[in-house]
Model the fold of this input.
Amino acid sequence: MIWQIDLALFVALIAAALIALWVRNLLTAVAVLAVYSLLAAVLFAGMGAVDVALVEAVLGAGVTGVLFILAVLATTRRTPERAQVRRRWTIMPLLAAFFGLMLYAGTGLPPRGDPEAPVREGVAPQYLERSLEDTETPNVVTALLADYRSQDTLGETLVIVTAALAVALILRRDEEVEL
Amino acid sequence: MVELLADRYWYVLVLLLLAIGLYGMFALRNLAKKVIGMTIFTTAIYLFFIEGSVVEGGTAPVLDPAVGLDPGRYVDPLPHLLILTAIVVGVAIVGVALALLVRIYRTHGTLDEDVVIDRLGREEASAASDAAGTEREPGA
Done:
């Protein structure tokens, strides 16, 4: 990917994140959050992760946006005053420490796109080599998702069922005890 | 050090997004804004993982006879799979969090964290004094 476009997209991404947290109207914040997810999807596509880009655009921007809009319509779109100054100043040193620590840890990571990176020596090249023969699926991500790691995908559907059950239990209206 | 950072500007940008998400979760009072902060944080983690899958000169992991079967010509497919799962689970988490928000709003009529905590604290205090009152009665 051309690094100038990459960088411009990333700056737009950071701006969208800041705006989503800054605006007072919650519906506006949700719309900006959908823009944020779409920009992330474009970045995924630029890095060759086409499947992830599709899923992020549909689920990250689409379904999350719809869920947020439904929740905002069911509650309120107004937000109270912004963060209290005192709380903002207690959190800043913590954030700076987190940022510094992660930056320090990041210096130990391999540079971007390094073909000699340790992760390239593991199982990944073997998936690429063998998936066509084993599964006859040219898309390696599909082969991984539905063939090699289909039990992970089964567990994932179990997570969705559990989440749907939890939402139904939380939002249940009958037998509600008056507090 | 400067060279090291020029090579790794992606990590710095992802870290910035992580910090923004954490700020949203910790510093803001509105509960819906906290969920937005969490979404920003998780998406930053997705970006970090996909960034790790990039290979110089690699293309999307869809085997193409024109490109050949050499694994060095494709980006790493394994992080893609992990992040596909993570996105789906992330949407489930957001769904449950928003359901809790709706429930909190129904009970307390506000999404302001401080107001909710204040009300919960007062309820606890009155419940405690009630309990103390009923305990004292039999002895009196």
Observations:
- Chain B has a mean pLDDT of 84.
- Residues 95 and 129 of chain B are 37 Å apart (CA to CA).
- The radius of gyration of chain B is 25 Å.
- The first helix of chain B runs from residue 2 to 7.
